[in-house]
Amino acid sequence: MRVGVPGEVKIDEYRVALTPAGVRELADAGHEVFVQTGAGEGSAISDEAYVAQGAKIVPDAEAVFGEATLIVKVKEPQPAEVGRLEARHILFTYLHLAADERLTRGLMQSGATCIAYETVEDSRGRLPLLAPMSEVAGKIATQAGAFMLEKPLGGRGILLGGVPGVAAANVIVIGGGVVGMNAAFIALGMEATVYVFDRNIDRLRELDIAFGGRADTCSATTLSIEERLPEADLVIGAVLVHGARAPHVVTRAQLGLMKRQSVLVDVSIDQGGCFETSRPTTHSDPTYEVDGITHYCVTNMPGAVPITSTYALTNATMPYVLQLASAGVHGAVADSPGLKLGVNVAAGEVTYAPVAEAVGVNHVPVDEALSAVPA
Which three-class secondary structure state does DSSP give residue 92? Predict the structure, then answer.
């Protein structure tokens, strides 16, 4: 198969979907790889490094989409990229469609088969392609929150870990999944006082063991969160419902309970945000204020550390990229039920039920939609 790697065009996005090691794996398996010139520069990967492993460098995104059948990206396609998609294409990337009706409808109109990293599952129901970026985002969330608490950045002016004789800051993490666990680990490492909320008691037991009892684990009821908000200096939202829009766990009214110039970091913003007052921001302009509370809602947090993120992502995606390139969509989803769950759009239909519900379109089962896609 002909595999294409365009440069990412989302603002402040420096990752690339494939490393030279990934190119080598595909080339050794007999596939052709077309990489847009300069696509790896943000991750410190040169065109020459790709060529050395068998890639062909093409001048622009139009050439990538024109040459390739399988398009491998990092972030959701921007409008110009959606316009380049055709029914013959397989798009493999993060999509986060539940929060973006316009993008969903654009992908439907393209006729392309669109597979979302974030809804692919493994045999245990975990999200193997979301996990590495969740690990990065969780760690960045605490770093960013600590920075935004500094007075020159508009924060309260409190050091996360305190010093002898001065109390540490209080950090609340809502959601105990991969993001939340990593956010809490960094907060604990910075010697903050940490509370982790989750609805799953078994998960809280696991976290209690993982943290060695250093963090307080709390059942995530509305009242229990509300009672902790007045103490919070930093609140990290890490709520995930597979492929669906994130629920609001802090309302605007509840902001009135919080200290002025405390900080909210919404890692769920790709899925619509888990704070009622959240809206997408960028690394260039990461924060805004609502009712005296600083909001950090950058939609591509891992893009700030592309060298780490690019390699971590490729480590996870490569087996699936190879499977798609070697077997095509039909063969790959037949061999991998977890990959089938990644198919969100095919033959003009939405095939992932939570997305269809979120954007208000009809849901068509994957097998039915794929039956209209040429093998």
Answer: strand
CA distances from residue 340 to 26, 209, 256, 328, 335 in whole angstroms, order as listed: 21, 34, 44, 12, 9
Instruction: For residue range 163-174, list pLDDT tens digits in order.
Output: 999 999 999 999
The phi and psi torsions of 132 (rounded to 5 degrees) equal: -65, -40
Q: Render pLDDT for 282-325 as a digit per residue (tens, 0 to 9).
A: 999 999 999 999 999 999 999 999 999 999 999 999 999 999 99
Catalytic residue list = 96, 270
> Which spans in 10-95 are helix H?
20-28, 47-52, 61-67, 79-84
DSSP line for 293-342: EEEE-BTTGGGGSHHHHHHHHHHHHHHHHHHHHHHHHHHHHHH-HHHHTT
Q: Which helix (H) or strand (E) holds 266?
A: strand 263-266
Q: Are 193 and 173 in contact (CB under 8 A)?
A: no
Whether pTM exceeds 0.90: yes
Average pLDDT, the chain: 97
Q: Closest Cα to residue 359, out of 103, 87, 93?
A: 103
Whether 101 and 360 have beta carbons less than 8 Å apart is answered as yes
